[in-house]
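I need you to check the entry underneath: sequence plus fold tokens. Let me know what the token row says about the fold.

>
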Amino acid sequence: MVRILVAEEGDELCGHTTFGTSRDPDAGESVGELRSLFVRPSAWRRGVGRALMVGALAGLSELGFEEATVWSFADNARANAFYAAHGFEPDGAQRTEDAWAHIAEVRLRLRLP
């Protein structure tokens, strides 16, 4: 199951997020996943990312998940600081994938209210 939220300003798309059931093989049924979060650079620092994050986390809670995870590039300081500001912490899992040219990723985790 996947849900999508979009942020618009007038007729322009400012950002989007997808979230739902975790795709990780080690995730239990109580773990949901923030699968993507994108905000157009011209909309950075205007609350769009925060609104999308709040909506996604509320959506995961409504779906009955107790925890949320997100995969982030290990060296993406901007994204990792954003996730940390929302309470996500590394859970020790790491991976690389062909699709991302084997760039190191870390999994972050948050207990949902």
